[in-house]
Amino acid sequence: MNGISFNHLKDPVVLIAVGFGSGLAPKAPGTAGTLIAIPLYMLMQPLPLISYLLITTCLFIAGIWICAYAAEKLGVHDHPSIVFDEIVGYLITMIAAPEGWQLIIVGFVLFRLLDAIKPWPISWFDRNITGGMGIMVDDVVAGIVALAIIQGLLYFQLL
Predict the structure, then answer these.
(1) Are the C-beta atoms of 77 and 126 separated by less than 8 Å?
(2) Which pLDDT score, from 0 to 100, does residue 6 have?
(3) Is the pLDDT confidence value at 89 over 60?
(4) Rounded mean pLDDT, 94-101
(5) Binning pLDDT at 50, 70 and 90, where does residue 71 land?
(6) What per-residue string of b and e applies to 90-106 under the rule 16 or more CB within 10 Å gives b?
(7) Rounded CA gap, 2 and 45, in Å?
């Protein structure tokens, strides 16, 4: 189980950090964690934009502590099973996205590609920021880049 014991999962903060177990997937835990974000996004999508932004911001701030706590408990900085950062990154990707499965899938693919490949500036943040903020910030930047791409595609009516 990726070096995580059932005792770790008894800790509610660790359980949240590993996306309620989605981050324990033997292959592509970040992808599994991002999949968990889709139903959360679908619940949040009908909210007014300000509410969506407030919830996403609160999740980001809480995520700094959640990820730092889980990393300490697991004894590994940015353990692959910690996927709370992917959840927040996907929610950022989907800010102000119109309803529809096409955009859910496009956002998912864009975010996963950017998070996996980590082009500049995402790679800079990944290498240079540590702790809970370091775990969160590369996914936040990947989400912002994916958000900009989606909004650009929508603006130019390519989606």
Answers:
(1) no
(2) 67
(3) yes
(4) 96
(5) very high
(6) bbbbbbebeeeeebbeb
(7) 33
Closest CA to 3 of 31, 24, 22, 29: 24
Lookup: tokens for 140: 């936040």
In the chain, the DSSP E strands lie at none
Structure tokens at 159: 């989606």
Prior bond to 121 cis, omega within 30?
yes
The model carries a pTM of 0.95
Residues 31-52 pLDDT 10s: 999 999 999 999 999 999 999 9
Q: Is the confidence at residue 10, as pLDDT, over 90?
A: no
Amino acid identity, position 65: W
Dihedral sign for Cα atoms in the order 34, 136, 126, 104 = positive
CB 73 within 8 A of CB 67: no
Strands (E), 8-101: none
Burial of 55 (0-12, 13-18, 19+ CB in 10 A): middle
Give the number of C-alpha atoms closer than 13 A to the C-alpha of residue 137, restricted to the C-beta side: 14
Distance CA 37, CA 90 (A): 7
